[in-house]
Design goal:
The protein is α/β, with parallel strands linked by helices. The protein is 57% helix and 12% strand. A 5-stranded parallel β-sheet has the order 2-3-1-4-5, with helices on both faces. The structure holds adenosine-5'-triphosphate and magnesium ion. Magnesium ion binds next to helix 1.
């Protein structure tokens, strides 16, 4: 099994590129943002707590995020065997450490981290545009600016965490969707081949 993390700031294109990666490689998509929005839509106890953070552009507490993730992995134990693409998780160094030490019964190794890099000005532009039809409560200028600050403070340090482990693949996130995807497949194909050769 081959597992990847897709990493980048809000609006960097993680969801868009995840869809294309899944289509080509058949991994299962685990989007933390979608999981949380699902809980909110069903008005679960977790969802109500999550909503109070998300609508303010803050991260939800690590323990809650990990609890929700474990429930989802448990419910999909068969599907995750073909490999996973983690989108939006981990988002703090603490989440990465917990995940790497094995959460519950799930010992899932990260084989590559695709880092989509784009500048803040471009990100704000994209998120404002998305906000027009997404209906997401967090896609408005004030909350977008908070999310970017949270990204730089709490999530960006993860880049070093994965660089040190030789897993981080920087990808220029500012070209066309297809050009970015082509750069991603070049990285993934090399790493997949290397992993299979070492089996
Ligand atoms: P993108 O536009 O690249 O998909 P995003 O930041 O706009 O990224 P989501 O990944 O959907 O959006 O996350 C939305 C919100 O959900 C975050 O702002 C945060 O409040 C919460 N969230 C998502 N993942 C996590 C996580 N791993 N830890 C804590 N909070 C999270
Ligand atoms: Mg997303």
């Amino acid at each position: 099994m081959f597992n990847i993390v897709i990493f980048g700031a809000p609006g960097s294109g993680k969801g868009t590129q995840s869809d294309k990666i899944i289509e080509r490689y058949g991994f299962m998509h685990v989007s933390s943002g979608e999981l949380l929005r699902d809980h909110i839509a069903h008005d679960t106890q977790f969802g109500r707590i999550a909503d109070s953070y998300i609508s303010q552009g803050m991260l939800i507490p690590d323990e809650l995020m990990i609890r929700i993730l474990i429930d989802h992995l448990d419910a999909n134990a068969d599907r995750i065997k073909n490999g996973l693409i983690l989108d939006g998780f981990p988002r703090t160094v603490n989440q990465a450490i917990e995940f790497d030490s094995g959460i519950d019964d799930h010992q899932i190794s990260v084989d590559a981290v695709i880092g989509l890099e784009a500048n803040d000005e471009e990100l704000v532009k994209r998120l404002l545009k998305r906000g027009i039809d997404s209906g997401r409560t967090d896609d408005n200028l004030e909350v977008i600016q908070r999310r970017l600050k949270v990204y730089h403070d709490q999530t960006a340090p993860l880049r070093d965490y994965y660089l040190e482990r030789g897993l981080y693949c920087p990808i220029n996130g500012e070209g066309s969707v297809d050009d970015i995807f082509a750069a991603i497949t070049r990285e993934l194909d090399v790493r997949l081949m290397r992993k299979n050769a070492n089996k």
